Amino acid sequence: MKIIECPRDAMQGLVRQIPTRDKADYLNQLLRVGFHTLDFGSFVSPRAVPQMRDTRDVLGLLDLQTTSTRLLAIVANVRGAQATLDFPEITYLGFPLSISETFQQRNTNQSVQAAFELVPVLNDICMKSGRELVVYLSMGFGNPYGDPYSVDRVLEFVSRLDALEIPIVSLSDTMGQATSEAIRTLFDAVVPSFPKIEFGAHLHAFADRAIEKVKAARQGGCQRLDGALLGYGGCPMAADELVGNIDTELILSVTGYDGMDLNEFGKAKEMATTLFMTYGN
Known about the structure:
alpha/beta; TIM Barrel; eight-stranded parallel β-barrel
């Protein structure tokens, strides 16, 4: 199981701007822990996500010489993807594609069809620059807007992505509403049907439901799982009330700590507590 730590998602909904140096110090500590990937920032409109407006500057302060952790940045359009070409240290580009038309409009200000048309363009940019595209299927387990949803609809989306040779698809419980049964059912459906795709999960949850969701994803064949230390974060475009990411420590209690430096993990946890207590209010 690849563990993806997501400080970008933990920070992006905060109203108070975290100083660039503080962000970089925290990310550098996370780079010492041993995560497979760090979802560290995004190249999107600073008007849409003000907290991530300094991603370029943060990247210049990261110590990447002694870490094996890979970097992932979120993009929402071609301009954002092209901006990342200045930074060969980024391994993955993440693109949010929603099962819900309403959420696609709220999140990226475009239709699902327009977002789908971007996918092959972004994938081409990735392949030519030696990267991999991660498509996040937002509202992958349903939505609160009344938009059409079914497992068959998800399979249709994944089939189209498979035809485009997208290497990684992350099924996203954007508002934390998925049950463990729904998570297991969806993974049971997609994993054997599309063997060329690496499937991940980006799950949000209230604390009392988190561990059962992690277990369900693992049992269903999830190959990469996103988390955020202390369970901070949530998608500010989805709803007024943010449902946090699943606490990485809880994920590791299920998957094991193989490859993790527990001393550095403890330091990162302390830094997360200070950082989010300081800027999260």
